Amino acid sequence: MNLIELTATGFGFLCVLLTIRRSVWCWPTGLIQVLLFIIIFYDAKLYSDLVLHVIYVGLQFYGWYCWTRDDAGDDNLIVKSLPMSWLVGWIAVTVIGTVSVGWAMARWTDASLPYPDAFTTVASLIAQLLLARRYFQNWGFWICVDCVAIWVYYTKDLHATAVLYTAFLILATIGFLTWNKQRRKQEIEAIAA
Question: Where are the transmembrane segments (predicted)?
Answer without folding.
Answer: 50-67, 87-106, 139-154, 160-179
